[in-house]
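Sanity check record (used in CI):
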Amino acid sequence: MSVNTAAQNPDAGSAIRRLDWLMGDLVARVAGARNALLSSADGLVLSRSPELDRDGAERLAAIAAGFASLARGARSELGAEEVRQSVVEMDSAFFFVLSAGQGTQLALITDADCDMGQAAFEVNRLVRQVGPHLSALPRGRVGEA
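Expected output for Roadblock/LAMTOR2 domain-containing protein:
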């Protein structure tokens, strides 16, 4: 299930609807979850949970891309080879970001009183199930095939 534009693949619209459903299902399964988002590694929205509007999704995708990039940049300095997930704890929220396939990442925002173990389990389970089928196609310059 590659995520790409309808111009590249006529079935892309139905794939995106299925992914939107998965994002909504993730939010429904995790008590205290607010929003879920699938984005490209460079911050373009690929899919979002229904309660997340387009503008909010674009801001969240940019934030997720920034956190993921920071974690990847820190890994060698910290003696690690792979970043599995980033979790940011705030006074009123947790923010989870993890790789979800080649060139894609999953972000989940939860209330601060959520069960972190359940949230981490559910996002990792979703990535294990669908991650191997996800990829964000590289984008060429305008006019390139």
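The chain has one domain: 12-133. If this sentence no longer matches the regenerated tokens, the check is flagged for review.
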